[in-house]
Amino acid sequence: MKKNRTLGIGLSMLFALLLLSAGCEKPVEAGPLAPDFSLPDISGQIISLEQYRGSVVLLDFWATWCGPCRMTIPLLTRLHEQYKDRGLVILGISVDDPRLIKDSDLVYYKKMAQIDYPLLRFNQKVIQDYFSSEQMAIPTMFVIDRNGRIRNRIVGFQPETLEKSVATVFQ
What we know:
The protein is of the alpha/beta class. It has five helices and seven strands; from the N terminus they run αβββαβαβαββα.
């Protein structure tokens, strides 16, 4: 009786391991379709996510007062330089309060920080679409593949994770 019980437990464990390993062999699928938006950039031009379909897009939700956001900017600039010829587009979405940080302030900040990608102004709809009912943390970056699907969401200053995520989309 004890032998049958041990054999049953062993077979159950083997079956569970087989199920787990079979699940690990499935190809990684992209996430949900990234919500489209139309937002003004700091020069007043309207930019939509849809206009970049076919490119890999990295959305960076950030603010000028956020230390980790400022630490991420040189990495984003380097990634943009490294992958722009392969189709990487970076869009920085500023969540700064427009009553406190004017577009002219962001233009100056962009120049001083040597940001070489467009800076957009957030609205409540884009925040709702990308963060739903979750508490928004910044920086938060979304890596979106050429088909418009979210491949990764990176919260906080995580340079290695961000670099690996971008590289994976281009493999």
